[in-house]
Amino acid sequence: MRIENPQAPRRKNKKSSPGKEDSDKLDGKFASLVLLPDSTILMVGGTSAQTDDEFKTTRGTR
Amino acid sequence: MKEAEQFKLNPASVSSSTWSKLATATVARQYHSTALLLPDGRVWTGGSNPNNSDDREERMEVFSPPYLFKGLRPTIVSAPDRLEWNKDFTISCSNPGAISHAVLIRCGSATHGFDVDQRLVELQVDSRTNTNVVFKLLPDRNILPPGHYMLFALNAAGVPSRAVIVSCGGSSSERIC
Question: What is the DSSP letter of A24?
Answer without folding.
Answer: G
